[in-house]
């Protein structure tokens, strides 16, 4: 993923049309306001403050999982490496699609904790239950399997790196396969809001809590300054997770910063509302593109849209718009990513469409 | 370190006299205001935004070190483990006082990156150049030294965990010993502001830049919501440090959160001003305690004051005041820590003194 | 790789025709004799004994590399993990063919030291210089490469896991690409003797010393009880490698056990002579198979031969012969591996051919 | 520990009086003979050969522990790091005396697997149950213990690095404390034979099997070329230990090398007989020293004797005898170590005593 703008132009980018990612702005204003209101209160550190306590309660309620363990971390890679190294035994690896964030964009963070990422094919960014089952059958029928890293868990992202979503049926089958083969199932929800709010999406937080061993609710890409909320539906499933957070440098002294943000996002229906707005903006964009005869790389129901462009056209567009180069299609065409977010304004979509 | 308050009373703590640490409040109001003002600007991520760029320039200027590499991380343990694992080769360990934060309070974070902490005695929390030199001479004269973890760097904290400070003379000698034995010198400045602002303190940022290989300027405990600014005076001293931050989960997507905070703290003289306030409060406390005949455990020139109390008196005090139990003196006496900060009000000191 | 024999028959296997691997017997008799002759001599430990000293000299001479660092370790996985973790910086990964031993058969040993294995396609088990170059160009042109594990070295095996060999031309180009992109080149020579002795093989120890940064001369699979000799042609290329051996548990107290074995193997021309014998046996087998109309999976010039068999025939063969199941071809055919070694007798080949 | 001989004299050392360690010679002749007798038999690898199977049975019988898991590794540091990293969870550390081999002589091997060594005082090389209990009580009563590495196991050596032994009473209390606090107890028996054979020793293999979670029977220092036999009395206590051996490079392809050695050592009473011989030699030495008025540093009942010598006398002795310098006593006196072994001859003791 590349932001297709030259560095020297960063200053100019303010004000430009910019669809390069979903973490361009600060935080939803309600978060900043709550930070200001509570600023001079004294609170204990490390996640025991009243805001973390309140945010935990609201998240448990939203997941209909009153006993869940809930932890707040700062970012996605940090969350992935902390959860994965906490779940696995030393001889175990984690199964992931080849396009999974942990495999392709995290600088070897999982390996740095001592664990192998075992890759499987991706299907529009998704891992198939069938592939996992086949892998496990081959592994278990391999008489020399004790010489191999043992598959201990499955990592998926939802939405995926391609903006796609697991259906409830798909996740149910995958979860069932995981349980049959004693693999923990971990869902990276860095963009979870956009997955929950997608039209036709049939997976709820409650579903995730019943189908996954661990998942997280992304804040950084969905309206927070920073922060991801880990949900472990079965309390005590990862003993001493707090100490492992500390050990990985993932424990904020002023945990209130994360607590206040998630408490705000889970007050009223804010998290879903701002996610729905991003989805609306994505549809406005998608429909506009299709109406103009553009080709999409795949049919993404979430806030990331993947557009196929002829290369000279891509370069012309880059003069006025920031976007992410995604991958080459052939010698003359490329895929670019356009991301909307909670902060995208309809005028921005319209201006982009006018340019195309 | 223990916050000497029962958990169930956390709710009540708001409003109570609370000297348990220096990260009780949110951020200095100027930071929140700047976050609000810039909130809807779009900015590139990962530390390349205009606020990080500006903060870097100001920090380089403050250190009179125009070429320095400057990186922003979220917290102290994260900074320590990332810097130490980046500086050391696999066979090397880090020298630290037994009371060093990395040895005693970070859940084995350094060891989790594969490196041994080699402990030396502490002298009021400080490491002595003499002890380092003696250790190195013994190491180098040991014919089986190749069977031992090799000392590769020195870790110190300034102010130390006991609030004490290195003098310029002490740090110069330590730095000279490190250079003679090819040990990198890393200074943990989680509370650096309070060290710079201490009365009679003779070490400046410029001195640190000339004497250390790496140091950091603490934000979390000095008025920021979160954040530590790593300064590597010699540019390129740690190649690919950015990738190592990513790998350790220490790279915030919205780097602006850290950039804006440090840009604000280094605008005008804010960082030193708010630190000076904490020092003034500490002196008001210290003088009041001494006037009342109390005994201090040691003579701390910074914002942490260590008071010896008879145990029943300590327990009585705990009904009205939150503080940190530090350690036992004997069967009937204990040391407690009282911390002031940028946010402490004189009335709070006076109320505490009235209670004692 | 699977030894296609049921466990309960292990007792019967003694005496059976057995081509399942090249480490079935103990050691070449000359090694055992030398161990016996020197047994009661007192010698210093950890590789400083006179036999290690002598073996080092002989290996340096054989490589025409009088300054090389030479270290003796016990086995292949141990050697791979120790060398790779010693060569890489924390943010770096190692490039390997997907069929490379470190990727596919070592239980995540490299990852357990904190490093990612970056896989590339295999061409009959080999890595192509072209693929490495293309990978590096894509990596270097990727503007977000600092978010990825950085390629720091290349791992190859010679002979490969498929028995194939790099030509001098191929290795020269690969070496040149590595140097151009500052990648260390490490050659796993667990079966190196069989590679050096192969007919038409054009790579010598001297070539390896000039083309690789590190390589090792396998003993375990070429006549030793255990042991691999690491050669680092440029002395001092990996400082403190001894300490890293100690740290990984790869330093034998009685280093003489390894020194005596390699000193024997490099006395006269023993290492090459016994390797040539294995090659002769492999050709006898190969020619016999082709004469009988069998199909080989690929044209291996070394001691591992890969035969395509119809499945029922494979199962019938398994009643009388131990071999390794390698992989499925289709629903009715499989690939099996037949390995010869320094210890294979012509009568065994003839008996096997008679059965087929 | 230092072998007090200049390097350049290594060649001369052969034939010299040499008490510098207990791994100076090759192997007990019965082992070499058995290696020769079985050499050309074909056997499966990785510890499933008939000799490993037989050795396991004999060791289980000697421990009266018919269900025990038994694994064979090559050396002590390798065994320590593999067992410790297999037993601990990521957030846990291992308790050890400050003089424990893992803390003081293994190049940070345990830390390289990610775990902290938590040190306690030593009492003639031993850890006291009282100190462990006190540590645990302080840990458990520390309200911020979740910020610390969690104590997960206890490491002891028996005999210790000072040649001393735990009594059955001492080990029973220590074991009881470990069980009470859910700490695994791991006993490093690199010199176990000399501990079992010591006069007045009251701990048997059966006792170790009932009191420890894991222990090992040292071969390298007790008559083998290499090898340590790990005993895990409760089968399945460490699942997938085989894979962790592979991952750490601790799995020999020709496992027979270790199997044959331990099978020989546990045939008849060989292991104890050769250990008893070393004890006899140590007593001959000890009695001779005391008769001559020498002072011993402590009363070691095993094969390592620690002698206090005036420094000029020590240097004179070093002209004729190889020994290990242990530590300084004061400006004019040092402690040296003299080690006997299964291979020490009475004439050597007498010659040494004649020189003193």
Properties at a glance:
homotetramer, 356 residues, alpha/beta, Aspartate Aminotransferase, domain 1, Aspartate Aminotransferase, domain 2, 2 domains, five-stranded antiparallel beta sheet, disordered N terminus
Write the layout of secondary structure elements.
The structure is a homotetramer of 356-residue chains.
Chain A lengths: L1 E2 L6 H4 L3 E2 L10 H10 L11 H13 L6 E5 L2 H12 L4 E6 L3 H4 L4 H4 L4 E4 L8 H13 L8 E8 L10 H13 L3 E5 L3 H5 L8 H7 L2 E5 L9 E5 L8 H7 L8 H10 L4 H22 L3 E2 L7 E7 H7 L3 E2 L1 E5 L4 E7 L6 H10 L1
Parallel strand pairs in A: 2-12, 4-5, 4-6, 6-7, 7-8
Antiparallel strand pairs in A: 1-13, 3-9, 8-9, 10-11, 11-14, 13-14
Helix pairs in contact in A: 2-12, 3-12, 7-8, 13-15
